[in-house]
Amino acid sequence: MVEKFREYLKRSFSNGPKAKIMLGLIICIACIVTILVSMRKTVNISIDGKDETIITYKGTVKDVLQERGYEIVEKDKVQPSLESNITNDETISIKKAVPVKVVIAGEERNILTAENTIEDMLLAEADNLAEDGIYYKDTDIVSPSKDTEIAPDMDIQVVNVKEEEVQDMEDIPFDTEQTIDYNKINTYREVTKAGETGKKAVTYKVVKHNDEVIAKLRVSETPVKDPQTEHVTVGGAIQKTSRSGETYLSKKTLYMEATAYSGGGRTATGRTVTYNPDGISTIAVDPRVIPLGSLVEVSGYGLAIASDTGGVIKGDIIDVYFDSNGECTSWGRKYNVEVNIKAYPGEW
Questions:
Q1: 18 in helix, strand or coil?
Q2: CB of 204 closer than 8 Å to CB of 213
Q3: Any transmembrane segments, and where (predicted)?
Q4: Looking at the DSSP assignment, which residues form a beta bridge with residue 259?
């Protein structure tokens, strides 16, 4: 267009000095107009969804926004970037940062953010949080949920979840092997071989919420040292007092049904049946309960040898011997008679 206009001027004006000056001025004006026309742009500005269309001659996004008096803070999101050149019919999108309160790892922080969701905000703030030793992880518990859209003055709770494995050394209790000595009173106890506690390495998975342990789960254990069994001898006898007032040790106390018999003769072990209230009498027993040859103290009867058996003497029954039927009748049938074994065969 400029060239055509120049040709027109050449034909219309002479080549005199004034004509040349005029021609130069006109050409300059035409160039300026052309430049201005090329700089003129229609731009749409969208701020948080609100649109505005403007005419501008500015060259960059930053210049356009400054021209319109828009204040941009560090956390605002601007697309294209502030340094980008503007083209005609371009749209500048601005998302203004809003304040939110975040309690994370037990610490309260006020954050400006222009991110869309809580998770986006936490990821964007990861470096800032890390500077203070706070690390957001995908396993952390977030409330409201991570996909919730950011809103101004929102309260956000983030519980830091940490899982770690720890190993503890723990004791393995030793077993105790007990031997009963019926020749010693039941209060007697002697360690004949000391036991030794073992050791094991136990691995736990520890779950922490904000450094507070909420779960400790056993994962595995490995023996390091085997325990050594303790050997103990204990007394099995109970101190009793006989009918004569003598104290003795009872190896075993039984409560039995007691009947009586008489008539003389010999016992199953070959002894002569005897009733000696001041010495040792003979009684019949079930050998499965009281071994034949045992020395016993029968309450109300006295000292006796388990030397006889009988067809009806089965289980917890004894038959005490008397010299006469009258004594047997007087004895009758007794229940819960205390019978103490003083000595087993071969022990007296």
A1: helix
A2: no
A3: 21-39
A4: 319
Domain 164-233 - what CATH class? mainly beta
Q: Coil, strand, or helix at residue 21?
A: helix
Give the number of other Cβ atoms within 10 Å of residue 288's Cβ.
8
Q: Does pLDDT of 33 surpass 50?
A: no
Phi, psi at 75, each rounded to 5°: -85, -5
CATH architecture of structural domain 98-159 = Roll (3.10)
Out of 3.40.50.720, 2.40.40.10, 3.10.150.10, 2.60.40.10, the CATH code matching 242-343 is 2.40.40.10
Q: How far apart are CA 56 and CA 36, in angstroms?
A: 11
Say if strands 247-250 and 230-241 run parallel, antiparallel, or are unpaired: antiparallel
**pTM score of the predicted model:** 0.51
pLDDT at 246: 86
3-class state of residue 235 by DSSP: strand
Q: Is the Cα torsion angle 309, 313, 315, 319 positive or negative in sign?
A: negative
41-95 CATH, one of 3.10.20.30, 3.90.1680.10, 3.30.70.2190, 3.40.50.300: 3.10.20.30
